[in-house]
Structures are given as structure tokens and as C-alpha cells.
């Protein structure tokens, strides 16, 4: 075994601290583990790393490099889910062992490590990737070697692979409900679209613009800044001048911190809602770096907030804190990453097999009643039906949920008329 | 272009954009001064400049927590102390790096590029191991928050004013050190002719170490000040490094005055274009103009005339 392989040992300190968190597991999750043990040859006909009592999966995220900021939470959530599943007896009576690889924020490295996981380690599933660029890099590998990837990030859509399950929202789910809410509740008529300059913000704003103009409202400005840009005074001046009702923001990474700090310094009170700031890119994780006092009053449109008041989520937050400390925060993507191992477990048990093709066939229609975000179901197109919520940022760095859609929103990765 | 706006709005645009340009100018100068000293005076291409800045930012983060925990009554003034600590920490690390690494490479200037790039990766991973991969939030004292409302439209950010004052102070201090003090004379002598400087009794090794430490220390102060306007994370330093080199190279590497002139040109061009074009296009055009001028004038805006 190579040095970089980090297979979870039975009694590692991490595992012990995770066990403490298990006390908080929702009782409903504990019911489904009485499965008849089948021998390894029956549940695995394709040579995956499955033994009589273990099954190997991969965790593939950046733990070094610039994306480590964002991907750390996903790794933590996936490990927590795996340990909780193991504590309940595992999947088809087999304990999950994970092999962790580091994509190092470098897309070719992601592809290389994905190949290593599928070819050398013969893992039954991979939980990983964060940026669209890394997903696009590993996609041919997963399709060539027939692997299964559980991808946690909200993203721009326009993709659907039989080898990927998308546990985050695609763009229309996240954006349209948010725009409808500001129009209806806040009477917004004019919008300023602002984003970092790469595929996700540009596609998101394309969808947003189309929707805004279809409803007869106006886009008064649309603008992109290079990734990592730190000077936003000019655009802040433009916003002041154009006086839009809503500024719709998809700025990412370190630029976020700079943008909100400079907004605050420029004398704009975000709580006054003049203009109202609606973001699709700032989760609780980002607020840690921005500082709650610099951002309180803005709204975010996504499917999960740490403060969601349901019992599943309370159990999840308690378990997460017991495992990683009281100061930890949980953002939208972290929760979506946590769903990955659970969705895979449900699909494997429905299929009665670890074989990738059988798991894929079983995947559409998989339901989770225990998800922290509430009930979710996998669509034929491998995305999740989910609710969209609007949260308002508070000075303590948490969001207060002010709105949630009544129904689950259907995932629509190829929206008609939006391209 | 202006037809949509009233004359009072136009006035406000110019006031606000003028201030945005000035504030960008002072940020550029603050970023570039440390590098101008190291790159310009010593010829060392310090790719780890951004990481020295982030060391200053993390010192500010630590200082704010120490003050919040042990000296809550003095919390309002922690930022001043933080900048001093940032200068000392970054300067000390700079001296250490010069002693352990840089002084072995003076005869191989291109190798300093690789060595300091490696150093920047090492520092990034150290920050990640010590402070965690996530960005940390640095809380500002109240007096640095907010803005001075000048009129209905125009608000002047207080931290922008603070950065300007800081830049003026540091630029004046560097000017005094380099051009009015005995030590500055030694530095300039070493730059112009190392063997002769050694022959007249200047301890060139010591001068090198102090120069490098000074450059790094100024980077630390800049990083500390930038916690007001930017992010503090293991890789945040990378956000500044390109602009910093751009300013120093465009200005003419060995001239501090050139650095200031170049920071002014680039900041004004960029903030004006940002207003009339989109953000990405403004950056592209700025880079194009700089590349064009450097093709015509490879030595940069200002060049030191010395006999080689």
C-alpha cells in the first residue's frame, strides 16, 4: 500500500471522536440495517474491493492548495457519514473502508487520482470533487472505467452522466426560486448581476437574466471580475449609481471577503435592503472568513442552512460538532457531501449488490427521509429533488431561514429556453 | 455614456472614482514597496512576497485574539500593535530566510525564483497546518469600520483613508532610510558596486540581510493592513503577487520612485476602465497597455543610470 493511502483504522482517534457524535443519530436512520448477509461473490461480480466484511470506497478532494478552503468541510461530512453507517452495521453487512486521495486543487491530479482509485483500489464508489473543473476532469475517467461519483457542489447544470450522482442543486433549482421570492416578497423590479469570471457564475447569470427578462423585469448591469480579484470599489460605485432593487451575486473564494468588507466600508447598510443583496455563493463556511459583522442582512438562496429547524438537522449538527468541535460551521455543500454515502448505501441495498451497473439502475427513485435538509429523492437524471430556502445572514455568522419552497423542486439540468 | 445621469450624479461619480483610484494607488504602493526593495535593490525575485504579507495578516489575527482575551480595554488600539508585530515577525522570518537560503543564491538570480517559489509553497502549507485550511475572519476595531458620508452619493471609507495614511508614512520612512540615512547609503553603494562597497569597509552581508528583512517586514505591514479589505487564508498571498510584480517591473525594478509612478498609472487606468467597462475587460486592457509599454521600454518607466 502506498504511503498516501489513508485507510481508516478501526481505532483511530478520529473514529473515536466520531463515535461520540453517533448518540445524536436520528432513530429512523437505525432501522434499515437488518439485511441478510450475502457472500462476497454474490454482491460483487465485477471485481470491486469487496470482502466478506468490508467494502472499499474513495474520498477524492483537495486537502492542499487553494481549494482546500472549500473542500475541507466536504471531506469531514463524508467521513462522518461513513462512520455513522459503519456504526449501524455498514452496507450489506460490510464495513466501509475509505481510501482518501488529495486532488491538490489541480485538475489533472484529480483525474490521475480518480484513475488510481478505480483501477488500483477498485473502490465501489467515490465521494468527491468540488469545482466543476475538477468534475469535468474526472468525468472521462469515471465513464471509461465505469465508476460511480457522488458530487456534492451546487453547480451550473448542463451535464448529466450515468456515472455521477449530483447531490447538490443544479442552477435552476437554486436561482429561480430565489428570484421569484425577491420579486414577490420584496417587490424587486431591477437587478444587477455580479460574479466571478468563470463558467458557474456566467451560466447562473444567463439563467437569471433570462428569467428576469421573461417576467418583464430589468437587468441594469451584469459584470464579472477575475477569480481572486480584491478591489471592488468601482463596482460598488456603479451599484450606488444604478440603484438596482437587487444585487444578485455569485462571487467566489477570496474575492468574497474583499467584496463584502469593501461594501460595508463604503457605507452600504446591507440590512436596509436598499439595494437588497441576494447571493448564491456565500455559505456559512465563507462567512467565517468574511466575518458575520461584515455581511449581516444579505440573503442567500440555497437548499441547506445550518440553522434549519428540523430534527434530522439538529441530530446532524450535533454529530458534526461532536466530531469536529463546537466552533465548526456547516454550509450547503457540506450537507450535500454528507448525503453521498447515504444515497450510495440506499442504492446498494436496493440493488442487493455493489456492482456499479446494478447500483446505477437502482439509483433513480432512491429516497432519504433522514437527510438534514429534509426529504430528498433521486431523479431519473441523477440530480436530487430538493427544496430551496432563503436565509438572511445574522451577525453571528449563521443564516436565519425566512422562506422555503412548499414543494420539492424538480432538477432540470438542461432548462429549455435558458441556453 | 453620460446622458443618463444628472450633473450632480456625474460629480459624484468623479469624486467616488477618484477616491477609488487613490485608494487602489495606496494599496499598490504598499504591496510593492517591500518587493521593490528586495527585487529592485538586491535583484532577488521573491516569489514568496505574498506569503510574507499573509504572515502579517495572521499576526493581526493572533493579536486581535490576544487583545480580546487579555486586554479587552485596549481592544480599540490593537491594530496599531498588530502592525508592529507583523513587521517584526515578517522581518525576522525574512532575515532567517536570507541567512538560510537567499545568500547562497546571489550569483544565480534565476534560481532565487525557484527557491522562493518553493518557499512560498512551504509557507502556505505551514499556514494551512497551523491555522487550518479555512479563511479566518479578522474583526476590525469599531473606529476603522464604516465611512464618512460626504454627500448623498459619496461615502469615503475610513479604512481606505487609514491605508492611505499608512502608505504615506511608510513611503516617507523608506525614503528617509534609503536616501537620507547612513544605512541607506550603504545599501545603495552595495547595489551599485558590491566589490567596491566591500572594499571601503561596508559589511555587505549584513546590509543584504537587513535589506531583505526590511522588505519582508514592509510586506508584513501591508498584509496586516489588507486584513481590512481582503481575505486572510493560507493562499490569500497569491491574490496579490501578480499585481505586485506588475507594479515593480513596470516602474523599473531598481527605482523606488518608478514604483510609485507605476502604481499611480496602473491604479488610475484600472479604476477608470473598471467603471466604463466590465471588471475582466479592465484587467485585460491594463495588462495589454503595460505589456505594450514594456516592449517599447523594457527597463520600465524609470531606470537607474549606472556604469556596469
From TrEMBL, chain A:
Record keywords, A-Z: Signal
Annotated source species: Marinobacterium stanieri
Signal peptide: 1-40
InterPro entries documented for this protein: ABC_urea-bd_UrtA, Leu_Ile_Val-bd, Peripla_BP_I, TAT_signal
PROSITE patterns, per database record: TAT
GO process annotations (BP): amino acid transport
PANTHER family: ALIPHATIC AMIDASE EXPRESSION-REGULATING PROTEIN, PTHR47628
Pfam families registered for this protein in UniProt: Peripla_BP_5 (PF13433)
Keyword presence, Cytoplasm: no
Full protein name: Amino acid/amide ABC transporter substrate-binding protein, HAAT family
TrEMBL record, chain B:
BP GO terms, sorted: amino acid transport
Assigned keywords, A-Z: Amino-acid transport, Cell membrane, Membrane, Transmembrane, Transmembrane helix, Transport
Listed Pfam families: BPD_transp_2
Membrane association type: Multi-pass membrane protein
Main location: membrane
Compartment annotation: Cell inner membrane
A GO cellular component entry from the record: plasma membrane
Spans traversing the lipid bilayer: 12-40, 52-72, 78-101, 113-131, 156-178, 212-233, 239-263, 275-296
GO molecular function: transmembrane transporter activity
NCBIfam families: urea_trans_UrtB (TIGR03409)
Family indicated by similarity: Belongs to the binding-protein-dependent transport system permease family. LivHM subfamily.
Protein name per Swiss-Prot or TrEMBL: Amino acid/amide ABC transporter membrane protein 1, HAAT family
Amino acid at each position: 500500500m502506498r504511503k498516501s493511502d489513508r485507510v481508516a483504522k478501526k481505532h483511530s482517534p478520529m473514529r473515536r471522536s466520531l463515535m461520540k457524535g453517533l448518540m445524536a443519530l436520528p432513530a429512523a436512520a437505525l432501522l434499515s440495517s437488518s439485511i441478510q448477509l450475502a457472500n462476497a461473490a454474490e454482491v460483487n461480480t465485477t471485481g470491486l474491493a469487496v470482502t466478506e466484511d468490508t467494502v472499499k470506497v474513495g474520498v477524492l478532494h483537495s486537502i492542499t492548495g487553494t481549494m482546500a478552503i472549500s473542500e475541507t468541510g466536504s471531506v469531514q461530512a463524508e467521513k462522518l457519514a461513513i462512520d455513522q453507517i459503519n456504526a449501524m452495521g455498514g452496507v450489506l453487512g460490510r464495513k466501509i473502508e475509505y481510501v482518501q486521495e488529495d486532488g491538490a486543487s489541480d485538475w489533472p491530479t484529480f483525474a490521475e487520482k480518480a484513475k488510481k482509485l478505480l483501477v488500483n483500489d477498485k473502490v465501489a464508489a467515490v465521494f468527491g470533487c468540488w469545482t466543476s473543473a475538477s468534475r469535468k476532469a474526472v468525468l472521462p475517467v469515471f465513464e471509461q472505467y465505469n465508476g460511480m461519483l457522488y458530487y456534492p457542489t451546487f453547480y451550473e447544470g448542463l451535464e448529466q452522466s450515468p456515472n455521477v450522482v449530483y447531490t447538490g442543486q443544479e442552477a435552476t433549482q437554486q436561482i429561480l426560486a430565489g428570484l421569484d421570492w425577491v420579486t414577490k416578497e420584496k417587490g424587486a423590479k431591477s437587478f444587477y448581476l455580479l460574479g466571478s469570471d468563470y463558467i458557474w457564475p456566467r451560466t447562473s447569470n444567463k439563467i437569471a437574466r433570462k428569467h428576469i427578462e421573461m417576467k418583464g423585469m430589468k437587468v441594469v448591469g451584469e459584470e464579472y471580475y477575475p477569480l481572486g480579484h480584491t478591489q471592488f470599489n468601482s463596482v460598488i460605485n456603479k451599484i450606488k449609481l444604478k440603484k438596482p432593487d437587487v444585487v444578485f451575486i455569485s462571487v467566489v473564494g477570496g474575492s468574497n471577503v474583499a467584496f463584502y468588507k469593501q461594501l460595508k466600508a463604503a457605507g452600504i447598510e446591507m440590512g436596509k435592503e436598499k439595494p437588497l443583496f441576494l447571493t448564491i455563493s456565500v455559505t456559512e463556511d465563507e462567512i467565517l472568513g468574511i466575518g458575520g459583522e461584515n455581511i449581516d442582512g444579505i440573503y442567500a438562496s440555497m437548499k441547506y442552512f445550518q440553522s434549519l429547524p428540523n430534527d434530522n438537522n439538529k441530530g446532524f449538527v450535533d454529530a458534526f460538532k461532536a466530531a469536529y468541535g463546537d466552533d465548526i460551521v456547516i454550509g450547503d455543500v457540506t450537507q450535500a457531501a454528507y448525503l453521498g454515502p447515504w444515497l450510495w448505501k440506499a442504492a446498494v441495498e436496493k440493488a442487493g449488490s455493489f456492482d456499479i451497473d446494478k447500483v446505477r439502475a437502482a439509483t433513480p427513485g432512491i429516497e432519504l427521509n433522514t437527510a438534514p435538509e429534509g426529504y430528498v429523492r433521486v431523479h431519473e437524471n441523477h440530480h436530487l429533488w430538493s427544496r430551496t430556502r432563503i436565509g438572511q445572514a445574522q451577525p453571528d455568522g449563521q443564516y436565519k431561514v425566512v422562506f422555503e419552497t412548499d414543494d420539492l423542486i424538480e432538477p432540470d439540468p438542461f432548462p429549455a429556453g435558458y441556453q | 455614456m453620460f446622458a443618463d445621469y444628472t450633473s450632480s450624479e456625474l460629480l459624484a461619480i468623479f469624486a467616488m472614482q477618484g477616491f477609488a483610484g487613490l485608494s487602489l494607488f495606496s494599496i499598490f504602493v504598499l504591496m510593492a514597496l517591500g518587493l521593490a526593495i528586495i527585487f529592485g535593490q538586491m535583484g532577488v525575485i521573491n516569489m514568496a512576497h505574498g506569503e510574507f504579507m499573509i504572515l502579517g495578516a495572521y499576526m493581526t489575527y493572533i493579536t486581535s485574539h490576544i487583545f480580546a482575551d487579555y486586554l479587552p480595554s485596549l481592544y480599540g488600539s490593537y491594530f496599531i500593535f498588530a502592525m508592529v508585530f507583523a513587521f517584526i515577525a515578517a522581518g525576522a522570518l525574512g532575515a532567517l530566510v536570507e541567512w538560510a537560503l537567499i545568500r547562497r543564491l546571489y550569483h544565480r538570480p534565476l534560481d532565487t525564483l525557484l527557491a522562493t517559489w518553493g518557499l512560498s509553497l512551504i509557507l502556505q502549507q505551514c499556514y494551512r497546518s497551523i491555522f487550518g485550511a479555512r479563511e479566518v475572519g479578522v474583526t476590525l476595531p469599531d473606529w476603522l469600520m464604516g465611512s464618512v458620508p460626504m454627500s448623498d452619493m459619496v461615502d469615503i471609507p475610513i479604512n481606505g483613508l487609514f491605508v492611505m495614511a499608512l502608505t504615506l508614512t511608510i513611503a516617507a520612512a523608506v525614503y528617509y532610510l534609503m536616501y537620507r540615512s547612513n544605512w541607506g547609503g550603504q545599501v545603495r553603494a552595495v547595489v551599485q558596486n558590491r566589490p567596491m562597497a566591500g572594499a571601503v569597509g561596508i559589511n555587505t552581508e549584513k546590509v543584504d540581510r537587513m535589506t531583505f528583512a526590511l522588505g519582508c517586514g514592509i510586506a508584513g505591514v501591508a498584509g496586516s493592513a489588507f486584513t481590512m479589505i481582503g481575505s486572510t487564508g493560507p493562499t490569500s498571498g497569491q491574490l496579490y503577487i501578480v499585481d505586485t510584480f506588475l507594479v515593480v517591473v513596470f516602474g523599473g525594478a531598481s527605482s523606488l520612485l518608478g514604483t510609485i509612478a507605476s502604481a499611480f498609472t496602473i491604479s488610475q487606468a484600472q479604476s477608470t476602465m473598471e467603471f466604463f467597462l466590465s471588471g475582466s475587460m479592465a484587467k485585460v486592457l491594463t495588462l495589454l497597455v503595460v505589456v505594450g509599454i514594456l516592449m517599447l521600454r523594457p527597463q520600465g518607466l524609470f531606470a537607474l543610470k549606472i556604469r556596469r
